User: Fold this.
Amino acid sequence: MQYFSPPSMSAQDKPHHLRELESLCDLKNRTETLIRVKHSIFQNNESLDRKQALLDDVISEKQQLLREKRTVVEMLQGIQRDIEAATAAELALTKERDDLQDTLIKLRNDEYEPLKTEVDSLRLNKGLKRLPNLQEELDTQMAKYLEDRRERWRDCDSEGSSENRGSPVAAGAGSSSLHATGNGAVGEAGPSTTSRRRVTATSKGRPKKRQR
Assistant:
């Protein structure tokens, strides 16, 4: 059996309504494609705006961190310079202290002690008492120094009490003075803790003076 296919029609041979229908279908397809592309453009544009905003935030945060880093680095460099200066001062002062200690030891052992023994022997031969040793003289000087400080504290406390008498601040200062005296500030009119600490530090410094 032989089949015959109808001959294909050209655009000119098609009826007018078929050409219009095909044209409308093509327009519809292109319009739908255009809408999809436009929607994709809108979505990508919104995503781009969000990404740009995030990028700006990240860049701003990075710049802030870099500024903080520079500040910290400069601070650390300053601390390092201070440490190096303190180390140099420590080494220099340690050397000076050691040199002074050596000088004091030599003065005491090589000059003072032999001369002191000789003078005491001569004084005993003349019926005189021995001269006080270095420790006794240092104790006497320290006692006089502490007594002078106590007198100055009393004077300062008396002047402050007369100027602030009757004020709440003066009343508080008086109670602090009584409390300080009760805690062992013997004979002192309420010296501060810092002052007592300085006295203790001075007392600890006796051995250096003793060799002088």
